[in-house]
TrEMBL record:
Protein name according to UniProt: Gfo/Idh/MocA family oxidoreductase
All copies of domain Gfo/Idh/MocA-like oxidoreductase N-terminal, residue ranges: 15-110
Similarity section: Belongs to the Gfo/Idh/MocA family.
Pfam families: GFO_IDH_MocA, GFO_IDH_MocA_C
Highest taxon, organism lineage: Bacteria
InterPro entries: Gfo/Idh/MocA-like_OxRdtase_C, Gfo/Idh/MocA-like_OxRdtase_N, Gfo/Idh/MocA_Oxidoreductases, NAD(P)-bd_dom_sf
Residue ranges occupied by any Gfo/Idh/MocA-like oxidoreductase C-terminal domain in the UniProt entry: 124-415
Length: 439
């Protein structure tokens, strides 16, 4: 996404000057797209890269476990950082980034693309307008289907040490949305969850027999991903495997999965609202439902990203329907749609218009990229305060980190006890976290 932006729409404001990756095969793949000849560095030489190439900004898109180290080292080497979600996977990563920002005074941009999806921005607008009054609670359900959901169990994400589990890796998007919709910060979290569908033990308990170790070469099995079937996946992963041994097509039911696939949370917000949240990673359809209860009424956002999974003749499916909207098939009963309903006390329900989004993640990606690359032009003119910094990143992962602790202790966890290195209520960007008072 960032390479495409810098070679396309935003080429006039930014230039790719170097690559940094553990895998030379993937460097070569993107270097060829950029015309070839840009230098590639191993992560151990990040500082050298920043110095030699005069790097202004390092865009961090490594597996989550390395985000904190890369951001810290980039800032200390003299560059700013743009970092993919989640900010980091644990409290130590939060402390490391917070210290680097405090000690260098440099800037970290957190790319929360979901905020920019028009449907999510519209809900923020409704809440900020005061139409439903003061928010007392949010009910939020996210369903990942057996294609996109299963993909987390094939890749590096399947190991909790790499991703922090889906409560950090995936749900940090969702917790950021709630934090931002409410203009509030999480205070206490109780979580329950388990691996009930993917992984070898759950599969064996259901009587699932012998499985292939990897998807490539397998046909007619919807849980297998054949890297040869997609030229991009083949070039980026299969052809680059000999460099590091990383397999992108592991069987989701193979041993080694340490993340959960069913999760439920209760979150108390500092301002008094409650969030009930659930994430399921093996649903037959993909999308989410959010209900926001307020003192003057209620808002309900319903999003269907893929109503069902169409298995083609050759078993080919689209991995992430939100990233590539054209890949979602049609479904009469559960059509692909965004619907935002607002109903005030003593009134009929009304549909709140959602502007059309074009492109990945509900249209969020294109607008986000403008904020990343043309930030100075947009920030002042965005009353929704969509641009996010590292503090927003900490606020979002705080819920997942607390939830992961709660899964172990089976007790509620106070976010203040996590020692995240910052106070969540500190705010260097007041537009992001202050919703206007209800009329
Ligand atoms: N915002 C979104 O919607 C969204 C969508 C997809 C991915 N992401 C995020 O992007 C990041 C990358 O995900 P992905 O799916 O592209 O993963 P990926 O495995 O395809 O790519 C990760 C890359 O990092 C490289 N790498 C590994 N360790 C490294 C290190 N120490 N230093 C430098 N490079 C290293 C790998 O070789 C690989 O090229 C993740 O943090 C993920 O959460 C965000």
């Amino acid at each position: 996404m960032y390479v495409g932006a810098l070679l396309g729409e935003h080429a006039d404001v930014g230039e790719i000057v170097a690559w940094c990756d553990t895998n030379p095969g993937r460097i070569d793949y993107y270097d060829a797209q950029a015309g070839g000849g840009l230098p590639g560095y191993s992560p151990g030489r990040l500082e050298e890269m920043v110095r030699e190439r005069g790097v202004d900004v390092v865009i961090v898109t490594t597996p989550d476990l390395h985000h904190a180290e890369m951001v810290d080292r980039a800032l200390r080497a003299g560059a700013d950082a743009v970092v993919e979600k989640p900010l980091t996977t644990d409290a130590e990563g939060c402390r490391r980034i917070a210290a680097a920002v405090a000690e260098t005074g440099r800037n970290v941009v957190m790319t929360f693309n979901y905020r920019y999806a028009p449907r999510n921005s519209s809900l923020r607008e409704v809440i900020a307008s005061g139409a439903i009054g003061e928010v007392t609670g949010v009910h939020f359900e996210w369903a990942l289907d057996t294609v996109h959901g299963a993909d987390y169990f094939r890749r590096w994400h399947r190991d909790k040490a790499n991703s922090g589990g889906l409560l950090v890796h995936k749900s940090s998007h969702h917790f950021d949305l709630v934090n931002w919709w409410l203009g509030d910060v999480p205070a206490r979290v109780y979580a329950t969850g388990a691996l009930r569908f993917y992984g070898d033990r759950a599969a064996a308990a259901r009587g699932l027999g012998e499985r292939p170790e990897r998807g490539t070469g397998v046909t007619g099995d919807p849980f297998s991903l054949d890297l040869n079937a997609d030229p991009r996946l083949r070039a980026l992963y299969l052809d680059a495997e000999h460099h590091d041994g990383y397999r992108r097509d592991q069987d989701p039911f193979a041993p080694g999965v340490t993340i959960e696939d069913n999760m439920s949370l209760l979150v108390e917000y500092a301002g008094g609202a409650t969030l009930t949240y659930s994430l399921n990673a093996h649903a037959p359809w993909e999308g989410y439902r959010v209900t926001v209860n307020g003192t003057r009424g209620r808002a309900e956002l319903d999003v269907v990203e893929r109503g069902h999974i169409d298995l083609g003749e050759n078993g080919e499916v689209v991995l992430d329907p939100s990233a590539t909207p054209d890949g979602a098939g049609t479904d009469d009963l559960r059509p692909q749609r965004d619907r935002l309903i607002v109903q005030r006390h003593w009134e009929r329900a009304e549909e709140y218009p959602i502007p059309d989004g074009i492109g990945g993640h509900g249209g969020g990606d294109a607008i986000l990229l403008k904020d990343v690359f043309r930030r100075d032009l947009r920030i002042g003119g965005d009353p929704l305060g969509r641009a996010a910094g590292h503090l927003d990143g900490v606020r979002a992962v705080a819920v997942g980190i607390a939830a992961n602790r709660s899964l172990i202790t089976r007790m509620p966890v106070a976010v203040g006890d996590l020692d995240l290195g910052v106070s969540l209520e500190d705010d260097e960007n007041p537009t992001t976290h202050h919703v206007p008072a209800a009329p």
